[in-house]
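note to self: dont lose this again. the chain is below, predicted strucutre after it. 327 aa total, dont forget to put it in the shared folder this time
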Amino acid sequence: MSADEVEGGVYHVYNRISSGEPVFADPNEAVEFIEIIREVKKRDGWTVFAWSVMPSHFHLVLRTSAVPLWRGMHTIQNRFSRGFNRRHRRTGSLWQSRYKAKFVSDQSYLDRLVLYVHLNPVEAGLVTDPSKYPFCGHREVKKKIRAPLVNVDEMLLCFGTTQKHARKSYLAAVLAGIDPDSSEIDSPWQPFDFPSDKPLEVNTSSEYVDVLGRSTGLERPALEAAQFIKLVCKTARFDSDQLASRVRDRQTAAKRRMVVTLGVERWGQKGAALAEALNKNPDVVSWWVGEGIRRRLNDRDFAAELDRLDAQLSGALIQPQRRDGGE
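---
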């Protein structure tokens, strides 16, 4: 993970198309981009609070997981730009820059940011009602959407502690942003009825930053590739020589996928460096990582084992440091 990223941190991520070209004014391109975001959100365990895709730029407000933000954004921007260039027979950079990511340090900032992003289409003069703009998270909150990109309950916690109250407060804030002189929510803005007003709860099973600014994620010191492999094998009781051998049995293959997936996704390891340490072709290691990610998403036992090994490795490294430091 990059030194300036916080595991479980909330970020405002945005970028612009180079030269301001309105690429996303084409609904097909906007949908293509959104579907890539949706795939990465699932893969990397993001929590999305707000989003909007404007004709020439995008905004995302999200909470990261153990997988660093830069990996997801690299996938989103590179995959879309390659596809766009291929579809339009063009070359060169599509994006103005890498991407911008501002850390959201307090709740009031997050509250304002959700409204800013969801009101972006109104501010840009594209619509007068954000629910009429199809490429924005507001309509997912206002209406019953089968597969929203926004994590609706997590977002609503910015505006209240129960579903009805939070949704009404959110819609009132949106209406005030459209028309500051409005004092009431007109009938079209009324939230749909719930059987009962259920309490909203934060998902504490994933990493997040607490009220004191501390990440609940694991501490992962920087390691050289060879050192990482040695420590993982020691912790998991894997045979490092076997991982580097030409053995191709199913058990060895599963261990290889676990080691390289853990290294690349969570411990900041480069695939090429792991390949060199294992004396393997970088393309082979890249394939192992891809297979490992697919296993993590589709195999609960593999995902649980990956989490256990991650925690054990972090504990094995951090506890001695704390003892030596007198903590």
